[in-house]
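Let us begin with a simple case.
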Amino acid sequence: MSEALRRYKRDVTPTKAGKKWEELRLDKFDAELEWVGDFMSDVTTDQVAKWRDARLRVVASPTVRREMTLLSSVFEIARREWRTCIVNPVRDVKRPLNNPPRDRRIEPAEETALLNRLGYVEAEVPVTLHQELAIAFLIALEMRARSSTSTFLASRVMAS
């Protein structure tokens, strides 16, 4: 299994856009999977399910889903191209559900506080980067941009 993770990292990962994240994740798999020393053909769905359950106690379900996708990709390449295993045990393990979508909207008081923090003055031409950011924020609100964008922006500015 360890050899397959390293080979995948060397041969497949460099062709992907998110290669940095994938390299880190593959290194983590290689260092932490209990069955990393086993032959790929000996890894069972029970082992993968046990790993999934342990990960869910540490990270959120979307992270585990992404990790399972990567692990499944390693097994699929090994099965189809390298012929080092016959089955992909990850495919038969139920993936955790995604978190429900957020439904939070920015409150008028939060909007006012944010605009004040950015130094926004209505009907005045912006002169600072923060004031320009306030204008961008107002445009996003006017265009009914996703609330998570507005909420994210508000949390970042208020934290600084």
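The second case is a distinct protein. As before, the sequence precedes its structure tokens.
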Amino acid sequence: MTQPPAVLSVRGLSVCFLMPGGRRIAAVTEARFDVAAGECLALIGESGCGKSVLASALLGLLPANAQTAGEARLGDLDLLGADERTLARTVRGRRIGLVPQSPAAHLTPVRTIRSQLEETVAALTDVRGRAAVRKAAEAAAARTAFPVDHLDRHPHELSGGLAQRAATALALVGDAPLLLADEPTTGLDRDLVEHTVDELRRHIDDGDRALLMITHDLAAAERIADRVAVMYAGRIVELTDAAAFFGAPGPRHPYSRGLLQALPDRAFTSIPGMPPELGDLPDGCAFAPRCDRAGDACATRPDLTDTVACHHPHVQEDARA
């Protein structure tokens, strides 16, 4: 069976921040993955592991003290090498739609949600005429269950959940080939989480578009994802099919298993210890101090091979334990 083409291809993407005194913080290290047309890849991990930094690198939104290496290609475009003019005029909104992690910070505070949606429709689509633009803006709001009678409100008049739905509606307007959703279910109750992820799924189900969803909501990831990438301390430590990850045989990396076991409907046990500081990572496996399978080999950092970066991964027989 022919594999669908990769909409996004990331190879060896690294991001570090140069701090005062020459200190370097390795926020993302050698990330490698593809997101194919018609596919959702869920990038999961604890807060501070580098997920949102990776998203910012793809959009060219890193601060001035950031340095990048590696490659990230959106079709034939090298995102890391693109200049700000290209990113602003042809990438953001048109080729990459962003559902931001903090919608209140991305919505224009002095303008109504309706005016922001109408402006986006006019800028990113072929819809013309005041009435047609207005109708398209209302349709975009309906896709995320944003109430029409709230469209004339300003962002500060919205709850966190409504602001999230407004930001998602804005991201969907341009029908971009890649949708990058950074914590798109933040502030939503469970019914709206399901509605939102189902709408994101519909957005890519025609086979032409792809979704990279950054989330710590494993239930949402299980509902929507085709594949899962697990990130820990700036590195992808597992990359596998969602069905195998959430079902049988289950995750192979001990950290991945710990994430699932912390869910209320599973074992509901926590991972001991704390993640390391990204500015003070160990030479070996960063998860070893918290891992009950760690051994002498873990003094050397494992590479991501055969879906997992671990010297002592769970195999099919013991992954069901």
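The chain has two domains: 6-89+179-319, 96-175. Residues 6-89+179-319 form a domain with the Rossmann fold fold (CATH 3.40.50.300).
Keep these points in mind for the review questions at the end of the chapter.
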